[in-house]
Amino acid sequence: MLEALEPDGLLVRYAWTSGLEQPERLARGLRLLSDEERARAGRFHFERDRNSYVLAHALARTLLAQLTGREPQALRFALGEHGRPELDWPASSPRVRFNISHTHGLVACALALEHDVGVDVEHVERRLEIGRVAPSVFSPEERRALDALDGDALRTRFFQLWTLKEAYIKARGMGLALPLREITFHLDERRRPEIALGAALRDTAERWWLDVRPLGSGHMLALALAHEPRTVGIGELDPTLEAHSWTTSAP
């Protein structure tokens, strides 16, 4: 039962946590999680971070349940080689790939069939020392692009590059095991982002479809899909996490 997700499609849903943090909604979100997920949620020091974790995982389970026809609580996951969760699903069925992200005020989930997918959302108004972070994260070419900017333009470009890099390494499922400074993104507002990869990445740049966009006030969303999608649906989910209608956009 995967009719809502086309074989060559990309589905992205996001929700603002300001509409989700009421006690009854958090309690319902917790009920959707596994015992292990609830235990992990309980280990967060800050309530805001705990709430974001709960709501992001509840969102993923809600969407996966709608796609598979199973109850959210009944879904089971296995960890890949580098710790990425994979849906435990019959080998005879299309493989559902998904990725989640959460930041202050926003949670998101991206889904695709068969193809690796990564999503990252960031709160761009948070405090950050760009000059201290950039040398350890960005390639020389990316740093030169940042050095040419200042003010709001510098912050916007920093988070565009940051979210794209996060989305890519999450799609690869290897996280910080990948050499971040050998990944270079080329941004031009007239076309979709492009990626250049050093030999250490052992990957082909041409296979990646990328997108980065502002999302609401003070947030950025980036996507990385290891395939050119035929359809892309990006939409806001109702705060109940139960909506079945949303807006879509072209690839």
Notes on the protein architecture:
- This protein is α+β, with helices and mostly antiparallel strands and 251 residues long.
- The chain has one domain: 4'-phosphopantetheinyl transferase domain (Ribosomal Protein L22, Chain A, Alpha-Beta Complex).
- Helices cover 31% and strands 27% of the residues.
- It contains six helices and eleven strands.
- The strands form four sheets. The chain has a four-stranded mixed sheet with strand order 4-5-1-11, covered by helices on one side.
- It is globular.
- The C terminus is likely disordered.
Give the topology, please.
Elements: E1 9-16, H1 23-32, H2 35-42, H3 47-68, E2 77-79, E3 85-87, E4 96-103, E5 106-113, E6 117-123, H4 130-137, H5 140-147, H6 151-172, E7 183-188, E8 191-197, E9 209-214, E10 219-225, E11 231-236
Parallel strand pairs: 1-11
Antiparallel strand pairs: 1-5, 2-3, 4-5, 6-10, 7-8, 9-10
